[in-house]
TrEMBL record:
SUPFAM superfamilies: Periplasmic binding protein-like II. Keywords: Signal. It holds the Pfam family SBP_bac_3. Residues 42-260 form the Solute-binding protein family 3/N-terminal domain. This is Transporter substrate-binding domain-containing protein. Residues 1-28 form the signal peptide. InterPro entries: Solute-binding_3/MltF_N. It comes from the Bacteria.
Amino acid sequence: MARHLTHLTHLLALTAGLLLAGAGAAHAQQPAGFAAAKARGELVVGVPYLAPLPVAGAKIRTPHGLDANMAEKLGLSLGLPVRLQQVPADEAGARLAAGDVDVVLADRESTQPPTVAVQPTGYRTRPKAVIRSDTTLRKPADVRGRSVCMAEAASDTRALAESWGAVVRTYRVPSDALVAVREGACDVGLVDDAVWEPLVRFPEWKKFSSTLEPDGAPRERVWLLPAADTAGRAWLASEMKAWNQSGAWKAMTAKWARDVAFDVYLDQEVPDCHG
């Protein structure tokens, strides 16, 4: 019995040693930079648009774009929970300097002061149309005077549709705009081209898989962070390289399309018990 107890003690000691070694290795691999976020225990990410929280009993729906997904993935890499704040690109420098946010998502075209570093993501999109396949709409000129619907967060998309002479209608979330298209209340829905293909692959979207000729320049999402955080900048550059190599964008766009398709299904097929 004593020999068995001794053996068990050795096994427990070995297991504890391995756990401590693993914890030490994990600590050693903790990304450099983002000191304020680590001290706070939370990564605060600025995004161009943050939908108001739904009122009690209201439907929770997928927001426009991948900003929330990108922020969540970055938080996972840092081992931190994420909180989103609405930060327009022209306020990013001041909000970063004040420590209100740790990093901001914006379009590459936004002009920033020297105190702000810009880290490209490699994720580029432009608007793409979702149209019933039995229509004759094929060119942007064809939608002059027609209704074009999108999420209210898609400000660049709205400007493009207005340049076509379309009658623009905005909705709180993308699924609301797409439901309008499916129900015939809107002629064209606009989403990002990166999420269009995984969306129209679903069987229920086959009848809505027509689109318009491409228009508008692609826009790239970038991270903005303090230029003084050299360690954070180096780590973020490495992280974006890893995302591109691992197919992270394809995974995120596929998830977005799946979530929005489900939102539309709930809106069209499942009665809303909240009225």
